Structure formats: C-alpha cells, structure tokens
Amino acid sequence: MHYALPVLGASDVSQAVVYCLVSAGGGIAIAIGIRLWRPQAASAWWLFAASQAMFTGGDISYYTLTVLGEEADYSLLPNILYLLQYPLLGLALMVFSRRRTAGRDIPAVIDAAIITVSATLLYWMFLIGPMVSAADMLPMERLATVVFPVMDLLVLTVALRLMFGGGSRGCSYYLLLGFLWLVLLADSFYGMQTLISDYIPGSWVDMIWLAGYISLGAAGLHPSMARLGERPHEHRPVDATGYRLALLASATLVAPMVLVVQYFQRGDLNLLVVACASAILFLLVVARMAGLLAAQRRLASTDVVTGLSTRRSLQERMARESSRAGRRGTALGLLLVDVDHFKRVNDTYGHPAGDEVLAETARRIRASCRAQDLPARFGGEEFAVLVPQSTPEGLVRLAERIRAAVAAEPVTVDGSVHVSVTVSVGGAAMPPHARTVEDLVQTADGALYAAKHSGRNRVLIGQVTGGTGAADRRFHPAA
Q1: Are strands 423-430 and 459-461 parallel, antiparallel or unpaired?
Q2: CATH number reported for the structural domain that contains residue 437 in this entry
Q3: Whether residue 139 has a cis bond before it, omega within 30° of 0
Q4: Per-residue pLDDT tens digits for 180-207
Q5: Are residues 431 and 413 in the same domain?
Q6: 460 vs 454: CA distance, rounded Å
Q7: Which residue numbers delimit the GGDEF domain (predicted)?
Q8: H or E element that contains 355
C-alpha cells in the first residue's frame, strides 16, 4: 500500500502517514502480544516496544520536517529520537541473551566478536572512513553520519550474541532476528546512499525498513514469544555446527577481500598476493579446526569400551526425538538392557574379560537394532536403546530379539574361555506408558528392575505394579 499510493496519485504526505503507521504498528503489536501471551521476559519485550516507539517518533518528526520544507537529515529532534532507540534495543537484546544462557558462554562471545570485527572493517572502509574524510561535510553532519553506523555495530554485536547463544528457537525468535538483520541492512544502505547524496524518502530502502517493522510486530504477536526468555536449567553451549564454522570462515575472508578491492583500485600487485595468501591461510586454519572439532565430537559421543553412543549422546538424541514424536504424533520407545550377574564375571575372570563381555554384548545389541534405533551405553553393565516410531508390540519384539541374541552363544574371553551371558530388558513407550521423557526413563527402569527381580534373562515392557518400579534418578534428559 505504501508504494501503491504514488501510483494512485496520492500525495507524499499520505505515503509518509502509511509509513509511520506501519512503524508504530510494530511497537503496538508487541504490546498486544505481551497482554495476550504473558511472556517470561516481559521487560525485554517492553524495551523492544519502547525502542520502536523512539524509531516511530523519529520517523514522524523526520517526515514532518520534510513536509514543512525544512532540512530533516541532520535536524536535532529526529536524530535524538533515532539515537535513543539504540540503547533500548541493546538492553532488550542483552536481557534475552542473559536469560537464555545459564552461565558464561565464552565461545558465543568470541564468535560474535569475530564477525563484528569483520563487519567493522567493512563499515570503516566503505561507510565510516569516507564519511570521516569527506571534505564537504560540516562537523555536525559528519558526527551524525558516523554515530549511527557505530551504534549499528554495537547492536550487531549483541544480536550475534543472541544468535550464537542457547535457548528455544521458535517462530518468534526467527522473526526477531529477521527484524534485526533487515533494519541493520537498511541502515547500511541508507548510510551509503547518504554518502553520495542519493537517498530519497519512499525509495526501496524504506521497503527494507518496513519489512523489518512487520517482522518485529509478527514476532511480538506470535505465541512463541512467551518462551523466548525461558531460563535454561543448565549451561549447554550451542555446538559449533557446520553453518557456524562456515559463517566464521566467511568472516575471516573479509579482510583479504578488502585487499582485493584495493588492488583493483590501486593496481598494486603486492596487495593481491597478500590477500590470496591470507585467505588461503585462514581457510586452512578453519579446515584444521573443523577436523579437530569432528574428532573431539566423535570422542565425546562414543564409548571407548563398547563403541556405542555415550549417555550424553543418548540424552541429546532423546530430547530431539521426543520433540519430533510430539509433532508427528508417533510413539518413542526406550529399552534398558542390563547384563545379568556381571559382577561375577569381573570377579571370576577379571576386568579385561568384563570389558570383552561388554563389547560383545554391545555388538549383538547393535546387530539386533534397526538403522534408526540408537543403542548406547547407559552406565556400567547397563545399555539403552532409543527406539523412534515404536509401538509396545514392536518394543517387545526388539527386546526379545536382543535378549535371544545375547544368550544365543557364550562370549569368548581371554582367547579361549567361554562365558555364558544373559541380559534382562525393561522398556516403555511414550505413549502409552509415559507422558514425558522423564516418565519414559523411570517406567523403563522400573520394568528392568522388575525383570531382574523376577528371575533375570527376561523382558518386561510397560508399567510395573507392586512397588517394583523404582526409578533411576541419575538420568535426567534435560540435564
């Protein structure tokens, strides 16, 4: 509608009014969302609304001065209002970042700093530097044009800290990030157009700002905004995923690319050589880091004795599969497998023989599972199998297959000693035996406990009555 008005013959005033209404709508939508959804971090959302109110006030005063025929770009009132939005916006982002991180997340801070430094270089070379050295600018004009890019860089730092941190990532989270990136992008284009005196109110740059306002309003109205400030139970740093490494690698290439641009401007071959060498070195270092990270991830997620996944990997996968099962309406199963009389094996044949028994038992469990199942070492002589898209009947079949495979033939230890091994298996499915992941683990543990106390070498699935369902409270998937 904003861009249709000139086509329909409406005045510039009408276009400015529509623009200001959309700008104000972002803050109003947040206020409505706060009343509707009662978010945990209401203070942060009110800061967002106040920041947008400052932005709207700046827009109104800017367009009012423009309509009155006065110089609006460097007038005091709109610039003060525009500047006031930055501390409010930064405080809102800091509140979210602090609430969404239980402890210090130094890697997230460093990653944000890496990208901010790269962005600062670009801003200096193509925006701030030319503004500082422009000969036709008055001191006040130069100050005004430099302050806004600097404030944008500060907001970028806090926004990156939020992006690289932990916490839930619902629709409101992505809409909020969209608002931040759109506004920062529009500010950058506005600064470059101002530098060459090419900005015209109502141009395509305004469209980016409008898209940002709409994204902010949608973030405030979406129900997921209530969970955006949830406090995590413990500090769990976000893993260095492939996209994050790619983003950091791209940031390290900014400085060499600037040198390439200068080479084309000046024709100095040394600049091109330094740029290419720096880029190659940066990429080699990042590739080396990625290799080390992959190796560390494998070590952290694989049990040394059995080669199965670790308990931590099981916890993380269980949380993901639980969410997926809830969205798809499918069941999630869990089997707990305990080696019968394992202490007797250690006492009789020694701990190395016990490790051989565990390794062979793990191999037979893995061979009995489907490709999508996750067998893991749960602790000591106990194993777990996470079974996505399962049913109670399917769990029984899998559990019986595991029990039979382990008991089918003795395990050879020390090269010649044959040890008969059996396992007890307890299991549960969510639903019908449990409603939460914690209930699922407790119910499966209770079934295992009952299987051990009813003779061993057997399978029990589901709820157990009679007081035999003691839960293993050492395992907490949310931890």
Answers
A1: parallel
A2: 3.30.70.270
A3: no
A4: 999 999 998 888 887 777 777 777 888 9
A5: yes
A6: 10
A7: 330-464
A8: helix 351-368
List residues bridging with 411 in a β-sheet. 419
pLDDT tens per residue across span 261-313: 888 888 888 888 888 998 898 888 888 877 887 777 777 777 778 888 888 88
Q: What are phi and psi of 334, to 5 degrees?
A: -140, 130
Distance in angstroms (rounded) separating the CA atoms of residues 129 and 319 = 49
User: If we measure between CA atoms, which residue out of 188, 189, 165 comes closest to residue 177?
Assistant: 165
Closest Cα partner for 383 from 479, 467, 295, 475? 475
**Average pLDDT, integer, range 132-161:** 82
Which has more confidence, 383 or 244? 383
Q: How many Å apart are CA 33 and CA 249, to the nearest integer? A: 38
Residue 311 burial class via C-beta count within 10 angstroms: exposed 0-12, middle 13-18, buried 19 and up = middle
Q: What is the pTM of this model?
A: 0.69
Closest CA to 74 of 139, 150, 149: 139
Helix (H, G, I), strand (E, B) or coil at 360: helix
What residue has token string 């839960």?
Answer: 471
Residue 320 has pLDDT above 80, yes or no: yes
Q: What is the pLDDT, as a whole number, of residue 23?
A: 92
Q: Is 396 left (phi over 0), alpha (psi -120 to 50) or beta?
A: alpha
- Distances, alpha carbon 42 to alpha carbons 36, 38, 220, 320, in Å: 11, 7, 11, 28
User: Which strands form 459-461's sheet, in the order they lie side by side?
Assistant: 374-379, 382-388, 332-339, 423-430, 459-461
Task: Report the run of H or E that residue 244 belongs to, with start and end.
Answer: helix 242-252
Question: Which of 218, 238, 258 is the last residue before a domain boundary?
Answer: 238
Structural domain span for residue 164: 4-238
